[in-house]
UniProtKB/TrEMBL annotation:
Residue span of region Disordered: 1-81, 163-200
GO annotation, biological process: peptidoglycan catabolic process
Source species of the chain: Micromonospora terminaliae
Low complexity bias spans: 34-50
Extent of the signal sequence: none
Keywords from the UniProt entry: Membrane, Transmembrane, Transmembrane helix
Pfam annotation, one family: SLT_2
Name recorded for this polypeptide: Murein transglycosylase
Alphabetized InterPro entries for the sequence: Lysozyme-like_dom_sf, MltB-like, SLT_2
Gene Ontology molecular-function annotations: peptidoglycan lytic transglycosylase activity
Positions of the Transglycosylase SLT domain: 307-351
Keyword Transmembrane helix: yes
Transmembrane regions: 107-129
Length: 390
């Protein structure tokens, strides 16, 4: 319907035969596979309905009787699928060689080779590097036990507690609790901290305080001076750490009984005599296996490492964290002054605050990753805090 007028268009039928005088064949009827074969394509208009002649031998267009109609056309490159693998490889090699001689090939081929080399290197690194990475070594080794490494307690939870996370400074840390409910460094020495320029042993300035606390805690005076002086130094150099001498004293007790392990005695200058050396770290008896790292210069063992001194440092760790707390110009792991300050510096690493339960437990377990060891240190530090009344 256009402009209100209905129109109809009738398309004329296509004539079945060409017009008079026209040229050209009549369109072939479609082959009917159900009733019989189609007419011969060479037949003229007059015999369009005639039966096809028998196919001649060698005729490319002839089909055998009963062949399925509509056969697929052959794809020109389909013969490549049926080529033998060796022939395919040879063809690919010839094509690659020809391409590499072209300007584009000469430019791209080195890049493809470099890319393949990088991929092979990355794959090899993913397999070899994890196997070559050594397990992290402990900082120190407990000289009094060969207990294997066990589970690590959760941050903020005191081992053996029945409740949930402990409020920092309440009961989750060794030492004492201040009137406001926050932890305070247990037993801060009252003596002055000697400056680095003072001759002699700076920790001797704490002799009066050490003698008083030694009477109740049974810690040797020389060792107490070292622990107290290390706390004072760290209070000036790393105030946010708030490390208490009770923690250092507990580590010294668990590691070497304050420098008395294996018959040793702390001299007035703080040096243990004879030297305290742990068992070879050869992987036997529950010990870690650590090959020599100092060529035997510190532990006198060129094969395996041995823990050193009152705080039982591994040689490689001492070379990294060692300190000179008595101003004698030597970082001596067998000197309780040097060892206590080095241990304090290690515990305070990474921005730890030792009045926070999670930081305290993390620091002790990083020193020696044994749960029972950390619990022993906690119990002894808490005991020293109670006995000293600070």
């Amino acid at each position: 319907m256009v402009d209100g007028e209905q129109r109809s268009t009738t398309r004329p039928l296509r004539p079945a035969a060409p017009p008079d005088g026209g040229a050209g064949p009549v369109p072939r009827p479609r082959r009917d596979t159900a009733t019989g074969p189609a007419a011969d394509p060479k037949a003229g208009p007059a015999d369009a309905t005639a039966e096809p002649a028998d196919p001649k031998p060698g005729d490319a267009t002839a089909e055998p009787a009963g062949a399925e109609a509509g056969r697929r056309r052959r794809v020109p490159f389909a013969h490549a699928v049926r080529m033998p693998p060796r022939q395919l490889a040879a063809g690919a090699a010839r094509a690659t060689r020809a391409w590499s001689r072209r300007p584009s090939g000469r430019t791209a081929l080195p890049g493809l080779f470099l890319l393949a080399l990088i991929a092979a290197t990355a794959a090899a690194g993913a397999l070899l590097v994890p196997a070559a990475v050594r397990k992290p070594q402990p900082v120190a080794v407990d000289a009094t036990t060969n207990a294997p490494v066990q589970g690590v307690p959760q941050a903020g939870v005191v081992p053996g507690a029945t409740g949930g996370p402990v409020d920092p400074g309440a009961t989750g840390l060794p030492g004492t609790v201040g009137p406001t409910g926050t932890a305070t460094p247990g037993g801060t020495p009252t003596g002055p901290a000697a400056s680095p320029g003072v001759p002699g042993r700076p920790a001797d300035a704490l002799a009066g305080w050490a003698q008083k606390v030694s009477a109740t805690t049974r810690i040797p005076t020389v060792a107490l001076q070292a622990y107290g002086y290390a706390e004072l130094v760290l209070a000036q150099t790393n105030r946010s750490c708030q490390l208490s001498w009770t923690t250092l004293a507990a580590i010294g007790y668990v590691e070497s009984r304050h420098g008395s392990y294996n018959g040793a005695v702390l001299r007035p200058d703080g040096v243990a005599a004879p030297e305290i050396l742990g068992a070879p770290l050869d992987g036997q008896g529950g010990r870690s296996r650590i090959l020599d790292t100092d060529r035997g210069q510190l532990d006198h063992d060129p094969v395996y490492d041995k823990a050193l001194g009152p705080m039982q440092f591994i040689p490689s760790t001492w070379q990294e964290i060692g300190a000179d707390a008595d101003n004698d110009g030597v970082k001596n792991p067998h000197d309780i002054d040097d060892a206590a300050l080095a241990a304090g510096r290690y515990l305070c690493q990474g921005g730890r605050n030792m009045t926070i339960a999670g930081d305290w437990w993390g620091a002790i377990l990083s020193y020696n990753d044994v749960r029972r060891y950390a619990q022993d240190v906690f119990d002894k530090a808490d005991e020293y805090g109670r006995l000293s009344g600070t």
